[in-house]
Write a structure and sequence with these properties.
Blueprint (H helix, E strand, L loop, with lengths): L2 E4 L3 E4 L4 E5 L13 H9 L7 E7 L7 E7 L5 E5 L8 H9 L6 H4 L13
Antiparallel strand pairs: 1-2, 3-4, 4-5, 5-6
Bound molecules: zinc ion.
């Protein structure tokens, strides 16, 4: 049984949470040039590493808020809990984020505007 530290409620039993799968999957912008195969990779392929894995969790029986967890899939040790929209801070979790094959995908590149200078507004 895991003891998960919800960033809003504190330590709670694993049974109060639901895992939302892999974290940090960037959604391609509407205007992208992805092939069907590249889009299928974005949509369907999920990592399943032996070691540090970055996951999204929701406190379903508590505050119902989402957050990220860096967890070792072998020992189940929770290395870090951090907010949605941020990247991990611990060295092991940062290394897992950087080493993920997903950082090199066409879908990840298509999630960022081609030219930030060309964007209008805020
Ligand atoms: Zn909570």
């Amino acid at each position: 049984m895991l003891l998960i530290k919800c960033p809003f409620c504190g330590d709670r039993d694993e049974l109060e949470f639901s895992c939302g799968g892999e974290a940090h999957i960037a959604r391609p912008l509407a205007e992208n040039t992805l092939t069907d195969a590249e889009f299928a990779d974005y949509l369907f392929l999920r990592d399943n590493p032996k070691g540090v894995f970055l996951e999204r969790w929701i406190h379903t029986d508590g505050c119902r808020r989402w957050f990220n967890v860096a967890r070792d899939t072998v020992s189940h040790e929770i290395i870090e809990v951090y907010p949605m929209g941020e990247t991990p801070k611990t060295e092991a979790a940062k290394a897992a984020h950087k080493a993920s094959w997903r950082r090199q995908t066409a879908a990840e590149a298509a999630a960022k505007p081609a030219s930030p200078a060309g964007r209008s507004g805020s």
